[in-house]
Design goal:
With 211 residues, this protein is α+β, with helices and mostly antiparallel strands. It contains seven helices and seven strands, in the order E-E-E-E-H-E-E-H-H-H-H-E-H-H. Helix 2 packs antiparallel against helix 3 and helix 3 packs across helix 5. Bound molecules: zinc ion (ZN). Zinc ion binds next to loops.
Length: 211
């Protein structure tokens, strides 16, 4: 495996590892619009953009509002043989809230709702002072580390893909109409993708540690 020869391990802040292939690189400050890519696999490592922190805060706030709407508005309506049933995600979770399946309902609610909302809130906490040119709030490093560590567990996008696959099956048995919460989730995925396009983690770590 190719490595940077004798990296100065005394100052890890000057190093960045490629998230895809682990190659270590020495970092340097980039000017706006410049991008740093991995020398081996070409993965994007650092991409500072003007106003990026404010954009991430705005997208996080939008995401939180969409998520709250997505929980309580009707998600879908199923009709078959003259009977119909409409349900929200919160209603479904409550329907399974007792009995042996309750832990599963809780886990689903945590991963598709609670964790994404927590990550949005944590990003706003971390980036709001930085976006306004002020020093980071206390514990910003802990909060942002949590944002990174919880990323694999926040599954709003996976939920909507899973739902879409399940709907293809259900559509053959009953007529299904999608409610506002389903579309709120779809917009949420676009908002998350836009947020990620502005979010250069290295730039955020650099800004937090300069307080
Ligand atoms: Zn790489």
């Amino acid at each position: 495996m190719a490595r940077v020869p004798n990296p100065d391990l005394g100052d890890l802040r000057g190093l960045i590892a490629c998230p895809r292939c682990d190659l270590l690189h020495h970092t340097q400050q980039l000017s706006d619009g410049e991008r740093a890519k991995c020398a081996r696999c070409g993965s994007l490592l650092i991409w500072p953009r003007t106003g990026a922190f404010l954009h991430v805060v705005a997208f996080s706030f939008t995401g939180m509002i969409l998520m709250i709407g997505a929980i309580f508005f009707p998600f879908l309506k199923i009709s078959a043989q003259g009977l119909s049933h409409e349900s929200s995600i919160f209603g479904v979770a409550m329907a399974f809230s007792d009995g042996w399946i309750a832990p599963l309902a809780l886990a689903v609610l945590a991963m598709i709702v609670a964790l994404p909302v927590f990550r949005f809130a944590a990003l706003i906490y971390t980036l709001w002072p930085l976006a306004n040119g002020r020093p980071a709030y206390r514990h910003s490093t802990t909060v942002f580390r949590l944002v990174e560590e919880l990323q694999p567990w926040a599954m709003a996008e996976i939920f909507i893909i899973g739902t879409a696959v399940a709907l293809v099956k259900v559509a053959g048995l009953a007529s299904v109409s999608l409610g506002p919460a389903f579309w709120a989730f779809c917009v949420l995925i676009i908002v998350i993708a836009l947020k990620n396009s502005f979010m250069s983690n290295w730039t955020i770590w650099d800004a937090i540690s300069q307080k």
